[in-house]
Amino acid sequence: MAETLDGRRVLVIGGAKFLGEAVARAAADRGARVVIGARDDDRAARLAAELPDATSVHLDLTDEEGIRAAAEKLGAVDHIVITASAHHNVPVAELERDGIAGAFEAKVVGPMLVAKHFAASMPETGSILLFSGSAAWNPAPGLTVMGVSNGAVSFLASHLAKELAPLRVNAISPGVTDSGTWDGLDAASRGAMYEQAAESSLAGRVGAPQDVADAAIWLLTAPYVSGETVHVDGGARHA
């Protein structure tokens, strides 16, 4: 039987923008008491003010002391969603150590530290939801760091699920999604990328934030699913 989010406390790390914001809004729509965790305090507070019974907390995945302080401040939470990322999309010949480290801090090291400081106070019915990405299963030049760090997320979900059981841990692997992540590209480049992604998808389109948010809500409320990576990519892995 599916769980409910009504009255549950859901911490969304990276929840002030992009897919994190979509998940935060979807959780609030289902009655959750959402906490927006982000480095941008002002943006997090603005979003929290738009949602019923929501709050915000400063949380930087590169700062273990800050993670510990956030855990002490918040106390028990029912679910944690981590959508944060740090891209370093360059050819291998142009890789920089700090860029590689930053990508893994956001996707792997930071989430491990969140588990370290939050998991012990979470209920057995709770869960942690990580975010991977389709680059892990579709290698492409210039995306090696993104692909490998996202691939590591899938292994992290299964290992944490084993160690933290019965607390559930899962991951979502979104395909190319029009969430605002790519708005820094000029319109022509973004349009060309979306067109190529749509052609490479069995669904024939790029993802919408709601596609990913719906999957996230399902995983938060599916009590018999743990250690899994759910692909929300329009079938791009099979195209």
What features would you describe in this structure?
The protein has seven helices and seven strands. The protein has 239 residues and is α/β, with parallel strands linked by helices. The chain has a single domain, classed as NAD(P)-binding Rossmann-like Domain (Rossmann fold, 3-Layer(aba) Sandwich), CATH 3.40.50.720. α1 packs across α7, α3 runs parallel beside α4 and α4 packs parallel to α5. It has a seven-stranded parallel beta sheet with strand order 3-2-1-4-5-6-7, sandwiched between helices. β2, α2 and β3 form a beta-alpha-beta unit.
How does the SSE layout of this entry go?
Elements (H helix, E strand, L loop, with lengths): L8 E5 L4 H12 L3 E6 L2 H10 L4 E4 L5 H11 L4 E4 L14 H22 L8 E5 L12 H21 L3 E7 L12 H13 L9 H12 L8 E4 L7
Helix pairs in contact: 1-7, 3-4, 4-5
Brief rundown of the structure:
This protein is an alpha/beta fold and 239 residues long. It has helices at residues 18-29, 41-50, 64-74, 97-118, 144-164, 187-199, 209-220; strands spanning 9-13, 33-38, 55-58, 79-82, 127-131, 168-174, 229-232. The longest helix has 22 residues, at 97-118.
What CATH architecture label applies? 3-Layer(aba) Sandwich
Q: Mind describing the biggest β-sheet?
A: 7 strands, parallel
Please write the CATH class name: Alpha Beta
Assign an overall shape.
globular
Given helix and strand content, the structural type is alpha/beta
What's the order of the H and E elements?
Answer: EHEHEHEHEHEHHE
- Mean pLDDT rating: 96
- Helix share bin: 40-55%
**Unreliable parts:** none
> What number of domains?
1
